[in-house]
Amino acid sequence: MPDAPPNARSRLLGAAIESFAAKGFHGTTTRDIASTAGMSPAAVYVHHKSKEELLYLISKEGHERTLRLVDEGIASSPGPVAQLRTVMRAFAAHHARGHTGARIVNYELAALNADHLAEITEYRRAIEQRMRDLVTAGVAAGVFTTSNPRMTALALLSLGIDVARWYRDEGDWTPEDIADHYCELALRMVGATQ
After folding, report:
1. Which one is the CATH code of 1-48: 1.10.10.60, 3.30.1490.100, 3.40.30.10, 3.50.50.60?
2. Tens digit of each residue's pLDDT (9 = 90 or more) over 164-183
3. pTM of the model
4. Max CA-CA distance within the chain?
5. H helices of 28-50, where?
6. Does residue 9 contact residue 48 with C-beta atoms inside 8 Å?
7. Percentages of the chain per state (helix, strand, coil), in multiples of 5
8. Residue 30 in contact with residue 52, Cβ under 8 Å?
9. Residues 82 and 44: beta-carbon distance below 8 Å
């Protein structure tokens, strides 16, 4: 059975990702988004309140997916070393595979209105807290030796997020290559002893 065609709302979201990636949020017009979606400019306002709402929906979905993959990675194993390996593998691969959307999600936050930014900030805090708790648990278990779990957690997240800035589909490395190497880097950063 063939895939169902995307509905207008999802077509506009996909077009917004493509347009924001090409021109940035502020350089993109609603006409650009509608044109990329193959729709009339009025269609944006029929399906979404504003260009900012499109950015918010893209950001919310991206952060929800990221929080989910971190939670799943932590739940996948009882030990901090295996948990960190799983989280970093998923986190790095996710930012490589979805690099276009991830760049928008991470680098266009300032364009969100105050309420939307506050909501997205809560997702970011939750992701950071999960990583900090994981690193702290590893130190407490004696399997990580970092002297500053909070800073190390932020560095690990930054490492994965930054993949979206430089990764290109036509590059030398697959998302899996990056994920494997970033697991190695992550374990070195926390001073894993096993």
Report:
1. 1.10.10.60
2. 989 999 989 999 999 999 99
3. 0.88
4. 60
5. 30-37, 42-47
6. yes
7. 75, 0, 25
8. no
9. no
CATH 1.10.10.60 boundaries in the chain: 1-48
Q: Quick one: which H or E segment has residue 117?
A: helix 114-140
C-beta of residue 157 within 8 angstroms of C-beta of residue 128: yes
CA gap 43, 35 in Å, rounded: 10
Q: Mind listing the pLDDT tens digit for each residue in 104-138?
A: 988 899 999 999 999 999 999 999 999 999 999 99
DSSP-based three-state secondary structure for 134:
helix
Q: What is the CATH number of domain 50-189?
A: 1.10.357.10
